Amino acid sequence: MYANTNYKTKKALRAAVDAGETVGAYQPGGMFPSQTDGEAVVEGPHYPQPHKWYARVLLADGAIVKVLG
User: Fold this and answer.
1) Phi, psi at residue 24, to the nearest 5°?
2) Is the previous residue joined to 45 through a cis bond, with omega within 30 degrees of 0?
3) Does residue 53 carry a pLDDT above 80?
4) What pairs with residue 39 in β-bridges?
5) Beta-carbon count within 10 A of 4 CB
6) What kind and span of H or E run contains 6?
7) End-to-end Cα, the chain, rounded Å
8) What is the pLDDT of residue 48?
9) How confident is the model over 11-40, as pLDDT tens digits?
């Protein structure tokens, strides 16, 4: 999964979520349905750039509410 915003680092994602920004998450390609609640893993930066970070997150209604790791 990806965050809607193309964060270059996990630290930037965590800062945005901690600041209260609404950060959505989606599964590109449509091959698998997007998860909207519970734990998930997001990666970044977005393709075609090489993925340099992965983050375990908590989703609620399709938005990232907490970065767990």
Assistant:
1) -80, 165
2) yes
3) yes
4) 58
5) 14
6) none
7) 15
8) 93
9) 999 999 999 999 999 998 878 888 899 999
Do residues 33 and 42 lie in contact, with contact meaning Cβ atoms separated by under 8 Å?
no
* 54 token code pair: 């992965």
Cα torsion at 59, 2, 45, 10 (round to 10°)?
A: 10
Total residues belonging to the chain: 69
List, in order, residues 6 or more apart from 58 with CB less than 8 Å away. 38, 39, 64, 65, 66, 68
Q: Where are the domains of the chain?
A: 2-67
Q: For the whole prediction, is pTM greater than 0.85?
A: yes
Q: Which residue, among 44, 56, 59, has the nearest Cα to 9 in the 3D structure? A: 44
Q: Alpha-carbon torsion 67, 40, 54, 27, what sign?
A: negative
Residues 6+ away with beta carbon under 8 Å from 24: 3, 4, 62, 63, 64
